[in-house]
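RETRY 2/3 - previous attempt timed out on the joint model. Re-submitting the same 421-residue input unchanged.
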Amino acid sequence: MITKAQVADIVWDDKALTRMVGNNPAMHRRLFDKFLHGSEEFVAIIISAAAEKNLAIVAEVAHKMKSSARTVGALQLGELCEQLETSAKSGDVDSVILHAAGLELVFAAVEAKIRGSFE
Amino acid sequence: MSDKPNILLVDDDDFIQMVIGESLAKLGYTVEAANNGLEAWNKINLNPKKYDMVLLDKVMPVMDGLTLLKRIRVDENLAALPVVMLTGAGQTEDVVEGLAAGAYYYLIKPATLEVLSGVVKNALEDSVRKRQLLELVGQRRKTMGLLQQAAFSFRTLQEAKELALLLAEVSQNPEKTVSGFSELLINAVEHGNLGITYAEKSQLLAEGRWEEEVESRLQSPHYAENKVEVMLVKSADILSVKITDQGKGFDWEKYLQFEPERAFDLHGRGIAMSRIISFDQLEYLESGNSVVATVQIKKTLH
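RETRY 2/3 succeeded.
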């Protein structure tokens, strides 16, 4: 389970998007918006699937979210998604529930980081 | 290929489609997207010549990336279409599986603009070379089918290309064999006769200077006498081609398979690919400066 203190030290690579698409703030903003919009939905699906012990859905959505998170530089979120994917694929329900419980918190921290970068 | 190469991006994640689409557009490419393997397959079938390259995710609903890749690789009309896997599935076995299925390269998400640019550029150049070869094959297939024995001696890349075409036509299945013969003959020139090492080629490709360096060494008196010898023997059902260069050989065994430690290099998979796709048997002799490629001749109905 991830604690609030750990989330405060969120691992963030602020050059990730620049390495992907170049230094274009307007484009970054569009991509960040798209990421936040899609991820919000992914988080809800993962939490709901974990509660229902639907590991196939957890694995599928966590796999997708992992790549997106690493692409924008949200390394900690990407790592958490990888753990969720691995646990779900190996049928470890307890681990899936544990990691899913921290997902909302980590995503909220990423969202705050991204929104902060717009200001 | 049109002025702007056309890339089919296959990924079920619309965020990744957007990021990669923006990256490729920035690099000067035209990008069309498909959401899964089946959608991509339908697009390709509708117009097989439309796309210059496929950038393919592995894990997708409806049809996954590996299934699509295997479909593309068994279709002779798509022999020159390069497929680059771009996926979050980055375990060693995933990478080897993708390469063994015929992927030109395997990129792990997120790939930086620099890496994406280098891989796409090399894949497209490779594709152009293959398409040029395929456009030339088949013109003398019937006559070449009568050939039973021949010996050749050559030294340049252009001669290697022309000889690859001839050998492919003799095999009676040029679409399958031409890229394999081309690979082996070019290897004999660049690595064998001209002594370009694996590491040197990596560097030259990264700098876009490979062809220039080959031409420069061909002009050098040091390599002037080096020739590649090719012996062809054909029976009713088997074509055997022995290629011998004047180099000191190489550690060929590790190049017959897709080795994980070379999975992310820009080259080094041609021999393994030829062995799987072009030939029925590929056997290196002794030190590796001599190789025998064997092809079963397809029976044709008269």
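The first helix of chain A runs from residue 4 to 8. Closing ticket.
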